[in-house]
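User: Could you go from structure to sequence for me? I need the amino acid at each position, not a summary. C-alpha coordinates:
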Protein backbone atom coordinates (compact mmCIF):
# COMPACT_ATOMS: atom_id res chain seq x y z
CA UNK A 1 0.00 0.00 0.00
CA UNK A 2 0.92 3.65 0.03
CA UNK A 3 2.33 3.41 3.59
CA UNK A 4 4.85 0.76 2.54
CA UNK A 5 5.80 2.90 -0.45
CA UNK A 6 6.26 5.90 1.84
CA UNK A 7 8.50 3.95 4.23
CA UNK A 8 10.62 2.75 1.31
CA UNK A 9 11.10 6.28 -0.04
CA UNK A 10 11.51 7.81 3.42
CA UNK A 11 14.29 5.34 4.16
CA UNK A 12 16.45 6.77 1.39
CA UNK A 13 18.90 9.44 2.59
CA UNK A 14 17.74 12.20 0.18
CA UNK A 15 14.17 11.84 1.52
CA UNK A 16 14.83 11.23 5.22
CA UNK A 17 12.89 14.38 6.16
CA UNK A 18 9.99 13.77 3.73
CA UNK A 19 6.72 14.16 5.62
CA UNK A 20 3.70 11.95 5.00
CA UNK A 21 1.36 14.77 3.95
CA UNK A 22 3.86 15.91 1.31
CA UNK A 23 4.24 12.38 -0.03
CA UNK A 24 0.48 11.91 -0.18
CA UNK A 25 0.11 15.28 -1.90
CA UNK A 26 2.47 14.12 -4.65
CA UNK A 27 0.44 10.91 -5.08
CA UNK A 28 -2.77 12.92 -5.41
CA UNK A 29 -1.16 15.27 -7.91
CA UNK A 30 0.11 12.37 -10.06
CA UNK A 31 -3.34 10.77 -9.83
CA UNK A 32 -4.86 14.03 -11.09
CA UNK A 33 -2.43 13.96 -14.01
CA UNK A 34 -3.47 10.34 -14.75
CA UNK A 35 0.10 9.13 -14.32
CA UNK A 36 -0.90 6.65 -11.59
CA UNK A 37 -4.01 5.54 -9.71
CA UNK A 38 -4.50 6.56 -6.07
CA UNK A 39 -7.76 6.35 -4.12
CA UNK A 40 -6.44 7.22 -0.66
CA UNK A 41 -5.54 3.64 0.11
CA UNK A 42 -4.21 1.89 -3.00
CA UNK A 43 -1.55 2.95 -5.51
CA UNK A 44 -1.47 1.35 -8.96
CA UNK A 45 0.29 1.93 -12.25
CA UNK A 46 -1.51 3.30 -15.28
CA UNK A 47 -0.63 3.29 -18.96
CA UNK A 48 1.24 6.60 -18.64
CA UNK A 49 3.31 5.42 -15.64
CA UNK A 50 6.00 3.66 -17.67
CA UNK A 51 6.43 6.57 -20.09
CA UNK A 52 6.61 9.01 -17.16
CA UNK A 53 9.33 6.85 -15.56
CA UNK A 54 11.35 6.65 -18.79
CA UNK A 55 11.06 10.40 -19.37
CA UNK A 56 12.41 11.13 -15.90
CA UNK A 57 15.16 8.54 -15.37
CA UNK A 58 17.68 11.38 -15.46
CA UNK A 59 17.28 14.26 -13.02
CA UNK A 60 19.34 16.54 -15.25
CA UNK A 61 16.96 19.34 -16.33
CA UNK A 62 15.82 19.24 -19.94
CA UNK A 63 17.14 22.41 -21.53
CA UNK A 64 17.38 23.39 -25.16
CA UNK A 65 19.50 25.91 -27.01
CA UNK A 66 17.61 28.74 -28.69
CA UNK A 67 18.84 30.08 -32.02
CA UNK A 68 19.40 33.84 -32.12
CA UNK A 69 18.49 35.37 -35.49
CA UNK A 70 19.50 38.84 -36.68
CA UNK A 71 16.40 40.26 -38.37
CA UNK A 72 18.41 42.57 -40.60
CA UNK A 73 19.95 39.68 -42.53
CA UNK A 74 17.69 36.83 -41.39
CA UNK A 75 20.87 35.03 -40.30
CA UNK A 76 21.64 33.03 -37.17
CA UNK A 77 24.26 34.82 -35.09
CA UNK A 78 24.50 32.37 -32.19
CA UNK A 79 22.60 30.38 -29.57
CA UNK A 80 21.50 31.03 -25.99
CA UNK A 81 20.54 28.70 -23.16
CA UNK A 82 16.79 28.31 -22.81
CA UNK A 83 17.02 29.37 -19.16
CA UNK A 84 18.56 32.73 -20.11
CA UNK A 85 15.91 33.32 -22.77
CA UNK A 86 13.04 32.46 -20.40
CA UNK A 87 14.32 34.57 -17.50
CA UNK A 88 15.77 37.56 -19.29
CA UNK A 89 14.85 37.93 -22.98
CA UNK A 90 11.58 39.85 -22.95
CA UNK A 91 11.06 42.10 -26.01
CA UNK A 92 13.21 45.19 -25.49
CA UNK A 93 15.83 43.41 -23.34
CA UNK A 94 19.45 43.78 -24.40
CA UNK A 95 22.43 41.47 -24.32
CA UNK A 96 25.88 41.22 -25.86
CA UNK A 97 26.76 38.64 -28.49
CA UNK A 98 29.57 38.58 -31.03
CA UNK A 99 31.00 41.77 -29.56
CA UNK A 100 27.97 44.01 -29.99
CA UNK A 101 24.71 44.86 -28.25
CA UNK A 102 21.44 43.36 -29.53
CA UNK A 103 17.85 44.14 -28.62
CA UNK A 104 15.20 41.42 -28.39
CA UNK A 105 12.36 41.95 -30.87
CA UNK A 106 10.41 38.70 -30.77
CA UNK A 107 10.63 35.54 -28.69
CA UNK A 108 9.44 32.18 -30.00
CA UNK A 109 11.06 29.07 -31.44
CA UNK A 110 13.91 31.40 -32.37
CA UNK A 111 14.93 34.65 -30.69
CA UNK A 112 14.67 37.48 -33.20
CA UNK A 113 16.94 40.43 -32.45
CA UNK A 114 18.01 43.70 -34.01
CA UNK A 115 21.16 45.76 -33.51
CA UNK A 116 20.55 48.11 -30.57
CA UNK A 117 20.27 51.75 -31.53
CA UNK A 118 21.88 54.62 -29.67
CA UNK A 119 20.57 54.81 -26.15
CA UNK A 120 21.59 55.49 -22.59
CA UNK A 121 20.25 52.07 -21.62
CA UNK A 122 23.14 49.69 -21.02
CA UNK A 123 23.39 45.90 -20.95
CA UNK A 124 23.57 44.01 -17.66
CA UNK A 125 25.50 40.91 -16.76
CA UNK A 126 23.14 38.02 -16.26
CA UNK A 127 24.26 34.55 -15.33
CA UNK A 128 25.68 32.37 -12.62
CA UNK A 129 28.45 34.10 -10.72
CA UNK A 130 30.66 32.26 -8.23
CA UNK A 131 28.98 33.24 -4.95
CA UNK A 132 31.00 35.07 -2.32
CA UNK A 133 30.24 33.49 1.08
CA UNK A 134 29.02 35.57 4.02
CA UNK A 135 32.24 34.95 5.94
CA UNK A 136 34.46 36.18 3.10
CA UNK A 137 32.37 39.32 2.61
CA UNK A 138 32.57 40.01 6.35
CA UNK A 139 36.36 39.73 6.25
CA UNK A 140 36.49 42.25 3.40
CA UNK A 141 34.35 44.57 5.52
CA UNK A 142 36.72 44.15 8.46
CA UNK A 143 39.69 44.99 6.23
CA UNK A 144 37.94 48.15 5.05
CA UNK A 145 37.24 49.09 8.67
CA UNK A 146 40.90 48.70 9.62
CA UNK A 147 42.04 50.63 6.55
CA UNK A 148 39.62 53.47 7.37
CA UNK A 149 40.93 53.65 10.94
CA UNK A 150 44.48 54.25 9.70
CA UNK A 151 47.54 52.98 11.52
CA UNK A 152 50.59 51.07 10.36
CA UNK A 153 48.94 47.75 9.44
CA UNK A 154 49.29 46.96 5.74
CA UNK A 155 45.97 46.12 4.10
CA UNK A 156 45.29 44.99 0.53
CA UNK A 157 46.32 47.79 -1.86
CA UNK A 158 43.01 47.78 -3.76
CA UNK A 159 41.04 48.14 -0.53
CA UNK A 160 43.36 50.89 0.69
CA UNK A 161 42.83 52.85 -2.55
CA UNK A 162 39.03 52.44 -2.35
CA UNK A 163 39.00 53.65 1.24
CA UNK A 164 41.33 56.57 0.50
CA UNK A 165 39.13 57.79 -2.36
CA UNK A 166 35.97 57.38 -0.28
CA UNK A 167 37.38 59.38 2.63
CA UNK A 168 39.00 62.05 0.42
CA UNK A 169 35.58 62.89 -1.04
CA UNK A 170 34.05 63.07 2.44
CA UNK A 171 32.04 59.84 2.50
CA UNK A 172 31.68 57.25 5.25
CA UNK A 173 33.33 53.91 4.50
CA UNK A 174 30.93 50.93 4.62
CA UNK A 175 32.37 48.09 6.69
CA UNK A 176 31.35 44.90 8.45
CA UNK A 177 29.93 47.16 11.20
CA UNK A 178 28.48 49.96 9.04
CA UNK A 179 25.88 49.59 6.28
CA UNK A 180 25.36 52.61 4.00
CA UNK A 181 22.17 53.64 2.16
CA UNK A 182 22.68 55.94 -0.83
CA UNK A 183 19.81 57.24 -2.98
CA UNK A 184 20.40 58.22 -6.61
CA UNK A 185 17.97 59.35 -9.30
CA UNK A 186 16.88 55.85 -10.30
CA UNK A 187 18.81 53.55 -7.95
CA UNK A 188 19.19 53.04 -4.21
CA UNK A 189 22.62 51.61 -3.34
CA UNK A 190 22.82 49.61 -0.11
CA UNK A 191 26.44 48.63 0.54
CA UNK A 192 26.66 45.56 2.74
CA UNK A 193 29.18 42.88 3.55
CA UNK A 194 26.72 40.00 3.50
CA UNK A 195 27.91 38.00 0.48
CA UNK A 196 26.06 36.97 -2.66
CA UNK A 197 23.23 34.80 -1.35
CA UNK A 198 22.50 36.80 1.77
CA UNK A 199 22.21 39.99 -0.30
CA UNK A 200 19.83 38.18 -2.67
CA UNK A 201 17.69 37.13 0.30
CA UNK A 202 17.58 40.49 2.08
CA UNK A 203 17.20 42.38 -1.21
CA UNK A 204 14.15 40.38 -2.34
CA UNK A 205 12.35 40.98 0.95
CA UNK A 206 13.30 44.67 1.13
CA UNK A 207 12.21 45.38 -2.46
CA UNK A 208 8.84 43.71 -1.90
CA UNK A 209 8.12 45.55 1.36
CA UNK A 210 9.18 48.89 -0.16
CA UNK A 211 6.94 48.29 -3.18
CA UNK A 212 3.98 47.81 -0.83
CA UNK A 213 4.82 51.02 1.06
CA UNK A 214 5.33 53.09 -2.10
CA UNK A 215 2.52 51.60 -4.18
CA UNK A 216 4.88 51.18 -7.15
CA UNK A 217 7.19 48.57 -8.59
CA UNK A 218 10.68 48.36 -7.11
CA UNK A 219 13.27 46.42 -9.11
CA UNK A 220 16.05 44.57 -7.32
CA UNK A 221 19.54 43.46 -8.24
CA UNK A 222 22.46 42.49 -6.06
CA UNK A 223 26.06 41.38 -6.00
CA UNK A 224 28.41 40.22 -3.27
CA UNK A 225 28.68 43.61 -1.53
CA UNK A 226 25.64 45.63 -2.62
CA UNK A 227 21.89 45.60 -3.01
CA UNK A 228 20.55 47.76 -5.85
CA UNK A 229 16.94 48.94 -5.76
CA UNK A 230 15.58 50.30 -9.07
CA UNK A 231 13.06 53.07 -8.44
CA UNK A 232 10.92 55.33 -10.65
CA UNK A 233 11.78 58.45 -8.65
CA UNK A 234 14.05 59.29 -5.69
CA UNK A 235 12.79 58.21 -2.27
CA UNK A 236 13.96 59.21 1.22
CA UNK A 237 16.91 57.18 2.49
CA UNK A 238 15.20 57.19 5.88
CA UNK A 239 12.32 55.18 4.43
CA UNK A 240 14.72 52.49 3.21
CA UNK A 241 16.40 52.41 6.63
CA UNK A 242 13.04 52.19 8.39
CA UNK A 243 11.77 49.29 6.27
CA UNK A 244 15.07 47.40 6.42
CA UNK A 245 15.25 47.80 10.18
CA UNK A 246 11.65 46.64 10.63
CA UNK A 247 12.12 43.17 9.11
CA UNK A 248 11.70 40.55 11.83
CA UNK A 249 14.55 38.02 11.56
CA UNK A 250 12.26 35.15 12.54
CA UNK A 251 9.90 36.00 9.66
CA UNK A 252 12.54 35.86 6.91
CA UNK A 253 11.71 32.41 5.55
CA UNK A 254 7.94 32.91 5.72
CA UNK A 255 8.20 36.29 3.97
CA UNK A 256 10.51 34.90 1.33
CA UNK A 257 8.19 32.01 0.52
CA UNK A 258 5.23 34.36 0.04
CA UNK A 259 7.26 36.80 -2.08
CA UNK A 260 8.79 34.14 -4.33
CA UNK A 261 5.39 32.63 -5.13
CA UNK A 262 4.50 35.73 -7.16
CA UNK A 263 7.95 36.57 -8.45
CA UNK A 264 9.28 36.13 -12.00
CA UNK A 265 12.56 35.20 -10.27
CA UNK A 266 11.33 31.58 -10.08
CA UNK A 267 10.08 31.37 -13.68
CA UNK A 268 12.75 29.01 -15.04
CA UNK A 269 12.78 26.80 -11.92
CA UNK A 270 8.98 26.55 -12.18
CA UNK A 271 9.21 25.37 -15.78
CA UNK A 272 11.95 22.82 -14.95
CA UNK A 273 10.01 21.32 -12.04
CA UNK A 274 6.73 21.31 -13.99
CA UNK A 275 8.43 19.32 -16.74
CA UNK A 276 9.81 16.81 -14.23
CA UNK A 277 6.36 16.40 -12.66
CA UNK A 278 4.88 15.79 -16.11
CA UNK A 279 2.61 18.84 -15.80
CA UNK A 280 4.31 20.42 -18.83
CA UNK A 281 5.58 18.38 -21.73
CA UNK A 282 9.22 18.65 -22.73
CA UNK A 283 8.10 20.27 -25.97
CA UNK A 284 5.87 22.90 -24.34
CA UNK A 285 6.87 26.39 -25.48
CA UNK A 286 7.73 28.29 -22.26
CA UNK A 287 7.47 31.66 -24.03
CA UNK A 288 3.76 31.17 -24.70
CA UNK A 289 3.03 30.38 -21.06
CA UNK A 290 1.71 33.04 -18.71
CA UNK A 291 3.73 33.05 -15.49
CA UNK A 292 0.75 34.33 -13.50
CA UNK A 293 -1.54 31.64 -14.90
CA UNK A 294 1.03 28.92 -14.16
CA UNK A 295 1.39 30.10 -10.58
CA UNK A 296 -2.38 30.21 -10.09
CA UNK A 297 -2.75 26.65 -11.39
CA UNK A 298 0.22 25.24 -9.47
CA UNK A 299 -0.09 27.26 -6.25
CA UNK A 300 -1.69 24.47 -4.21
CA UNK A 301 0.33 21.62 -5.72
CA UNK A 302 3.29 20.00 -3.94
CA UNK A 303 5.45 20.90 -6.94
CA UNK A 304 5.20 24.61 -6.03
CA UNK A 305 6.82 23.87 -2.68
CA UNK A 306 9.56 22.01 -4.56
CA UNK A 307 10.12 25.09 -6.76
CA UNK A 308 10.41 27.41 -3.76
CA UNK A 309 12.65 24.96 -1.89
CA UNK A 310 15.02 24.70 -4.86
CA UNK A 311 15.28 28.46 -5.34
CA UNK A 312 15.96 29.02 -1.64
CA UNK A 313 18.53 26.20 -1.51
CA UNK A 314 20.37 27.31 -4.66
CA UNK A 315 20.26 31.10 -4.39
CA UNK A 316 19.38 32.21 -0.86
CA UNK A 317 20.95 32.15 2.60
CA UNK A 318 18.22 32.42 5.19
CA UNK A 319 20.43 31.78 8.23
CA UNK A 320 22.89 34.59 7.55
CA UNK A 321 20.06 36.92 6.46
CA UNK A 322 18.48 36.40 9.88
CA UNK A 323 21.84 37.06 11.56
CA UNK A 324 22.41 40.29 9.61
CA UNK A 325 18.91 41.61 10.31
CA UNK A 326 19.26 40.78 14.02
CA UNK A 327 22.53 42.75 14.13
CA UNK A 328 20.70 45.75 12.65
CA UNK A 329 18.01 45.49 15.32
CA UNK A 330 20.39 45.19 18.28
CA UNK A 331 22.79 47.88 17.02
CA UNK A 332 25.80 45.66 16.36
CA UNK A 333 25.51 46.74 12.72
CA UNK A 334 24.79 50.44 12.15
CA UNK A 335 23.10 52.14 9.19
CA UNK A 336 24.05 55.52 7.72
CA UNK A 337 22.52 57.47 4.84
CA UNK A 338 24.67 59.51 2.47
CA UNK A 339 24.84 60.70 -1.14
CA UNK A 340 26.00 58.29 -3.85
CA UNK A 341 29.65 57.58 -3.09
CA UNK A 342 32.66 56.43 -5.16
CA UNK A 343 32.34 52.85 -3.86
CA UNK A 344 28.77 52.62 -5.16
CA UNK A 345 29.71 54.14 -8.49
CA UNK A 346 32.58 51.66 -8.83
CA UNK A 347 30.25 48.75 -8.13
CA UNK A 348 27.76 49.93 -10.74
CA UNK A 349 30.32 50.71 -13.46
CA UNK A 350 31.05 47.13 -14.65
CA UNK A 351 27.31 46.43 -14.87
CA UNK A 352 26.82 49.38 -17.19
CA UNK A 353 29.84 48.97 -19.39
CA UNK A 354 29.15 49.52 -23.09
CA UNK A 355 31.51 47.61 -25.32
CA UNK A 356 30.84 49.45 -28.59
CA UNK A 357 28.55 52.12 -30.06
CA UNK A 358 25.00 50.85 -30.37
CA UNK A 359 24.00 52.56 -33.63
CA UNK A 360 23.19 50.34 -36.61
CA UNK A 361 26.42 49.98 -38.57
CA UNK A 362 27.08 49.69 -42.30
CA UNK A 363 27.70 45.91 -42.19
CA UNK A 364 24.23 45.30 -40.73
CA UNK A 365 22.61 47.50 -43.37
CA UNK A 366 24.48 45.74 -46.17
CA UNK A 367 23.18 42.42 -44.86
CA UNK A 368 19.65 43.82 -44.80
CA UNK A 369 19.96 45.11 -48.36
CA UNK A 370 21.22 41.75 -49.61
CA UNK A 371 18.28 39.97 -47.96
CA UNK A 372 15.75 42.36 -49.46
CA UNK A 373 17.22 42.09 -52.95
CA UNK A 374 17.17 38.27 -52.75
CA UNK A 375 13.61 38.16 -51.37
CA UNK A 376 11.07 36.35 -53.56
CA UNK A 377 7.99 38.42 -54.28
CA UNK A 378 4.73 37.95 -56.16
CA UNK A 379 3.91 40.49 -58.89
CA UNK A 380 0.52 41.10 -60.55
CA UNK A 381 -0.30 43.45 -63.41
CA UNK A 382 -3.35 45.55 -62.52
CA UNK A 383 -4.09 46.03 -66.23
CA UNK A 384 -4.10 42.46 -67.62
CA UNK A 385 -4.02 40.43 -64.34
CA UNK A 386 -0.85 38.58 -65.39
CA UNK A 387 0.91 37.20 -62.28
CA UNK A 388 4.50 35.99 -61.88
CA UNK A 389 7.23 35.47 -59.29
CA UNK A 390 10.73 36.87 -59.07
CA UNK A 391 13.37 38.17 -56.72
CA UNK A 392 13.50 41.91 -56.15
CA UNK A 393 16.93 42.04 -57.79
CA UNK A 394 15.68 40.43 -61.04
CA UNK A 395 12.16 41.87 -61.14
CA UNK A 396 11.13 44.53 -63.66
CA UNK A 397 8.63 47.27 -62.87
CA UNK A 398 6.75 46.67 -66.12
CA UNK A 399 4.38 43.85 -67.01
CA UNK A 400 6.14 41.45 -69.44
CA UNK A 401 2.80 40.78 -71.17
CA UNK A 402 1.24 44.23 -71.73
CA UNK A 403 3.96 46.69 -70.69
CA UNK A 404 1.88 48.39 -67.99
CA UNK A 405 3.76 49.97 -65.08
CA UNK A 406 0.84 49.36 -62.69
CA UNK A 407 2.38 46.25 -61.12
CA UNK A 408 1.45 45.25 -57.54
CA UNK A 409 4.18 43.63 -55.42
CA UNK A 410 4.07 41.75 -52.10
CA UNK A 411 5.73 38.93 -50.18
CA UNK A 412 3.73 35.73 -50.46
CA UNK A 413 0.37 35.31 -52.15
CA UNK A 414 -1.72 38.22 -53.44
CA UNK A 415 -4.99 36.27 -53.40
CA UNK A 416 -6.16 37.52 -50.01
CA UNK A 417 -5.14 41.15 -50.53
CA UNK A 418 -7.82 43.81 -50.87
CA UNK A 419 -8.11 45.50 -54.26
CA UNK A 420 -7.30 48.93 -52.83
CA UNK A 421 -4.09 47.51 -51.29
CA UNK A 422 -3.02 46.12 -54.66
CA UNK A 423 -3.74 49.43 -56.38
CA UNK A 424 -1.73 51.32 -53.74
CA UNK A 425 1.18 48.87 -54.11
CA UNK A 426 1.09 49.20 -57.92
CA UNK A 427 1.03 52.99 -57.66
CA UNK A 428 4.18 52.94 -55.51
CA UNK A 429 5.96 50.67 -58.00
CA UNK A 430 4.91 52.93 -60.88
CA UNK A 431 6.34 55.97 -59.07
CA UNK A 432 9.44 54.58 -57.32
CA UNK A 433 10.29 51.46 -59.35
CA UNK A 434 12.66 48.87 -57.80
CA UNK A 435 13.07 50.99 -54.67
CA UNK A 436 9.37 50.44 -53.90
CA UNK A 437 9.77 46.69 -54.49
CA UNK A 438 12.64 46.58 -52.00
CA UNK A 439 10.60 48.37 -49.34
CA UNK A 440 7.54 46.16 -49.93
CA UNK A 441 9.79 43.07 -49.56
CA UNK A 442 10.36 43.90 -45.89
CA UNK A 443 8.72 41.72 -43.22
CA UNK A 444 5.27 43.12 -42.45
CA UNK A 445 5.74 46.21 -44.63
CA UNK A 446 2.46 46.87 -46.41
CA UNK A 447 1.55 49.62 -48.91
CA UNK A 448 0.62 52.13 -46.20
CA UNK A 449 3.93 51.78 -44.34
CA UNK A 450 5.86 51.66 -47.62
CA UNK A 451 4.17 54.88 -48.76
CA UNK A 452 5.25 56.64 -45.57
CA UNK A 453 8.85 55.43 -45.93
CA UNK A 454 9.14 56.25 -49.63
CA UNK A 455 7.49 59.62 -49.14
CA UNK A 456 10.48 60.74 -47.08
CA UNK A 457 12.66 60.61 -50.22
CA UNK A 458 15.47 58.72 -48.47
CA UNK A 459 18.40 57.02 -50.14
CA UNK A 460 21.02 54.42 -49.22
CA UNK A 461 21.55 53.63 -45.54
CA UNK A 462 18.90 56.11 -44.39
CA UNK A 463 16.26 54.20 -46.37
CA UNK A 464 17.50 50.83 -45.10
CA UNK A 465 17.30 52.03 -41.48
CA UNK A 466 13.64 52.97 -42.00
CA UNK A 467 12.87 49.54 -43.47
CA UNK A 468 14.60 47.81 -40.55
CA UNK A 469 12.67 49.90 -38.03
CA UNK A 470 9.38 49.04 -39.79
CA UNK A 471 10.23 45.32 -39.61
CA UNK A 472 11.02 45.58 -35.91
CA UNK A 473 7.76 47.43 -35.23
CA UNK A 474 5.82 44.74 -37.09
CA UNK A 475 7.46 41.90 -35.15
CA UNK A 476 6.70 43.60 -31.84
CA UNK A 477 3.05 44.34 -32.59
CA UNK A 478 1.85 41.58 -34.92
CA UNK A 479 0.42 39.52 -32.04
CA UNK A 480 -2.20 42.24 -31.51
CA UNK A 481 -3.53 42.42 -35.05
CA UNK A 482 -2.45 39.40 -37.09
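Assistant: Here is the amino acid at each position, in order:
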Amino acid sequence: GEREMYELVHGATPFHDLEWHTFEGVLRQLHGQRILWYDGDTVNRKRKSRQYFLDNISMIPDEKNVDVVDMSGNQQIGTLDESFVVDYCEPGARFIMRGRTWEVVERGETLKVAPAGRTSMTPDWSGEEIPVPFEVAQEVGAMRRRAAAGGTERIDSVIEEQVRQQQTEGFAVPTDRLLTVEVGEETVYITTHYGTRTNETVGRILASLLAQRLGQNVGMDSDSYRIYLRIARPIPAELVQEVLGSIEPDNVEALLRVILRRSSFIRWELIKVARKFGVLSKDADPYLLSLGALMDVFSDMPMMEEVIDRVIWQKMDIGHAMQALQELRDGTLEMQAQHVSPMSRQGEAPRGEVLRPGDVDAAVLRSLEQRLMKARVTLRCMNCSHEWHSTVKRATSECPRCGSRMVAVARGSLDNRRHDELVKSASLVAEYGRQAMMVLAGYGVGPRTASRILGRQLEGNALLKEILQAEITYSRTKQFWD
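One structural detail worth keeping in mind: Residues 65-115 form one domain.
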